[in-house]
Amino acid sequence: MDNPASLTILNDMKHDSDLLIVGGGLNGPALALAAARAGLTVTVIDAQPVARLTDAAFDGRAYALAMSSVRLLRNLWLWDTLADDSQPMLEIKVSDGRAGEGPLSNFFLHFDHAEIEEGPMGHMIEDRFLRRALQDAMIDCPPVSRINEDRVIAQAADSTGVTVTLASGRVLRGRVLVGADGRASGTAERAGIRRMGWDYGQTALVCAIEHELPHHGIAHQFFMPPGPLAILPLPGNRSSIVWSETHENAARFNALPEDEYIEMLRPRFGDFLGDIRLAGGRYSYPLSLSIANEFIADRLALIGDAAHGMHPIAGQGLNAGLRDVAALAQVLSDASHRGEDIAGQDVLERYQQWRRFDTATLAMATDLTNRLFSNDNPILRMGRDLGLGAVNAVPALRRGLIREAAGLTGDLPELMRA
Asked: Closest by alpha carbon to 332, among 24, 37, 26?
């Protein structure tokens, strides 16, 4: 880690909190609540004002929460406040085609939640509801302190803790530092952690639409040569859209007036939900793969996008981050109960070993799927369509993929178990 000459560290300094978490969006607050549940004290530092994090206005952004993530929120006593504003995902339909032509094959993939015993594969929840619930829960949780409208400008670790200096001049001391500050993580950069990855040549256009006909809780993934289009059900006759295009097309479409934007979306969306119109704002995000070479450093751990950013093709970005949260919280809790130093290298290594393989596997799967489907090669199209049909025809394989989509496979942390 950086160790500026101006930053004096005293090994016997009192810790302000057990955990110092940089980043107050979604993963940071979730970890704060999970750590507090385990008896640890936490300070969450975020540059944004609280009013922006708790804005109740609908802006069109939403997340597909896998069942395992819903379990995490339930175990943190948050789901009861979110359930009424969520939409269960009862089915997922995957097809392959071109804009304006619809699916070009009779082969498709269909997941139905009735094929597994646990319930819906996941729920859609708007960003505004999830963000506000996390912020409110931190207010009601005495072990958690928040610092907003301030940012970390320096950090340094020693044998007994980690010290951070804020732009305001305030100095904080903790036992372990957690970076939850996104792909451009300053926490990781100051620790000397490098990243690997590449640009996909695609931009995601994100918005919400209102439609004439009900969606019946069905999510759609339509693969087209420039990139996939996800249509994800929201409460009422509304759906969240994640529309991947080339950088050039996305910039052109995003600059269009609202009515022309919808006219560009309409042939890609189809008419199966009747007339459509925009609801809320429009956003665009360049798509890339970005994974930290290490998830830990001296007295430091990374979670969420600070550790890994991947293609949204399977909607697993936030779910992967929440699995980081549950795993790190369990590792720290177990270490604390055993009387270990929660920031000891061997303790943090347990977290990294738990999450690195799972993250790498998911990143490779999303990368391969995007490369396989985001083209118009007739040979590849024939192979992938036959593959979709073959998977759909084998119940055991299909159920396995449903459980994978629901986040129920692998070594689940305790907070993600029923």
From this structure: 37
Instruction: Determine, yes or no, domain membership for 3.
Output: no
Which alpha helices (DSSP H) does 4-97 contain, by range? 27-37, 50-53, 67-75, 79-82
Residue (of 243, 247, 251, 316) closest to 276 by Cα position: 243
What confidence category does residue 12 fall into, taking pLDDT thresholds of 50, 70 and 90? Answer: very low
| Domain extent at residue 65 | 17-416
Chain-centroid distance of CA 354 in Å reads 18
Q: Name the domain count of the chain.
A: 1
Phi-psi region of 119 (alpha: psi -120 to 50; beta: other; left: phi over 0): left
Residue in the block written with tokens 């809780």: 217
379 assigned to some structural domain:
yes
293: tokens are 């070479």
Could you read off the pLDDT of 89-121 as tens digits, one per residue?
Answer: 999 998 887 776 666 566 678 899 988 888 899
* First-to-final CA distance of the chain: 39
Q: Alpha-carbon distance 141 to 9, whole Å? A: 29
Amino acid type, 317: G
Is 6 part of a structural domain of the chain? no
Distances (CA, A) of 321 to 203, 252, 271, 310: 21, 31, 35, 11
User: Can you tell me the distance from the alpha carbon of 192 to that of 115, in angstroms, rounded to the nearest whole number?
Assistant: 46
Residues with Cβ within 8 Å of residue 399, at least 6 apart in sequence: 115, 116
Q: How many residues belong to the chain?
A: 418
pTM for the whole structure = 0.91
| Domain presence at residue 409 | yes
List the one residue out of 217, 257, 253 whose CA is nearest residue 234.
217
CA distance 330 to 351: 9
Q: How is the chain split among helix, strand and coil, in percent rounded to 5?
A: 40, 30, 30
Q: Are 46 and 147 in contact (CB under 8 A)?
A: yes
* Beta-carbon count within 10 A of 237 CB: 17
- Helices and strands, number each (H, E), in the chain: 12, 20
The CATH number for 341's domain is: 3.50.50.60
